[in-house]
Design a protein that fits this description.
The chain is of the alpha+beta class. It has two domains: 98 residues, Phosphorylase Kinase, domain 1; 213 residues, Alpha-Beta Complex (Aminoglycoside 3'-phosphotransferase, Chain: A, domain 2). It has ten helices and ten strands.
């Protein structure tokens, strides 16, 4: 961790701030500070990612700038005195940082409303369409399979240590889905994406969507980002009745190929199974079965919806744009 003194020196020397108050916002993978001056409020993000390099950080900043230039809202980047878009804090290694405007009055989207589900789908479809045209170099690949393998190892250790044998079936589910993902991966469309449009990173202001975090922005898969959105906003919130409205609207703006749709039949369920509250907090077999029933009910609805979408697409395939050829 970086001490507070280099942070203060950075704000004073690089941004010309003579007086300010700092509030630690406790980021998950980064150091995040709220910076309050007499007239303005900012957010300072300092990357703690050990694998973060200069060109990777620059590629993320450039991508955010690209999205902003195409009317995808995110907090404005505040340039330091050097005129660059980011700064460096040095302790035993370089730590890359950026200062943003602090935005008040943000509120979470409510996808339990049909109109909001369609509006959010339109936003994501437009975001993917714009990202698909992004031509700058990508220096980081976000690998969902590596992430799932890491979670699998943690799950195996947790089941063994906790002696909760009823959770062992999750290990098989996770292994099977990783194997299925690997087979589908060569046909998945990819580009530079945010890869983390969770409920803690996407908000609304003045009836417009805005994202506030990009710490894992990298080359990623369109379908995987949709899989996570289904997990966070529909499965986790027991909001499956409006998923069809989301999918129908999204596919009008950014169609997926049949392989990508197949991924959506099982990965949202796989992600939902291994969210912490679905196994760490299930301290009894009864609690786990209760959670499992909710997920299995969601799985049936999801598979039915994807089949309906696939049938519809097969009848109108000529009107849709294929982007699977962008794969490796």
């Amino acid at each position: 961790m970086i001490s507070i003194n280099p942070i203060k020196q950075l704000l004073k020397n690089e941004y010309g701030l003579d007086w300010f108050k700092l509030e630690n916002l406790h980021g998950h993978t980064d150091m995040i500070y709220k910076v309050t001056t007499h007239r303005h409020k900012y957010v300072l993000k300092v990357s703690l990612n050990r694998k973060m390099s200069k060109r990777r950080f620059e590629s993320q900043i450039n991508y955010i700038q690209y999205l902003q230039n195409h009317d995808i809202l995110s907090p404005k980047i505040i340039k330091p005195c050097t005129g660059n878009l980011y700064t460096t804090i040095k302790d035993y290694r370089n730590r890359y940082s950026a200062l943003f405007e602090y935005i008040d009055n943000l509120y979470s989207p409510n996808l339990s409303k049909p109109s909001e589900a369609r509006e959010y789908a339109k936003y994501i479809g437009n975001l993917h369409k714009i990202s698909h045209k992004y031509n700058n170099k990508h220096y980081w690949y976000y690998d969902p399979i590596s992430e799932e393998t890491r979670k699998l190892k943690y799950l195996e250790k947790f089941v063994k240590k906790s002696k909760r044998k009823y959770l062992a079936k999750l290990i098989k589910i996770k292994k099977d889905n990783i194997s299925r993902y690997k087979k589908l991966r060569p046909k998945l469309g990819k580009t530079m994406l945010l890869n983390d449009l969770s409920e803690g990173n996407i908000f609304k202001i003045n009836n417009n969507y805005i994202f506030i975090d990009w710490n894992i922005a990298a080359t990623g898969y369109f379908a995987d980002e949709i899989a996570w959105i289904i997990t966070w906003f529909f499965i986790k919130k027991n909001n499956m009745k409006h998923l069809s409205k989301f999918l129908d609207e999204y596919l009008k703006h950014f169609p997926l190929n049949s392989i990508e749709l197949e991924l959506l039949t099982f990965m949202p369920i796989s992600y939902a199974y291994t969210m912490w509250d679905n196994f760490e907090e299930c301290k009894t077999k009864e609690l786990f079965r209760e959670q499992e029933k909710k997920i299995l009910d969601s799985s049936k609805i999801l598979e039915q919806l994807i089949r309906q979408v696939s049938t519809s697409l097969s009848h109108h395939r000529a009107t849709y744009i294929s982007h699977s050829h962008d794969e490796q």
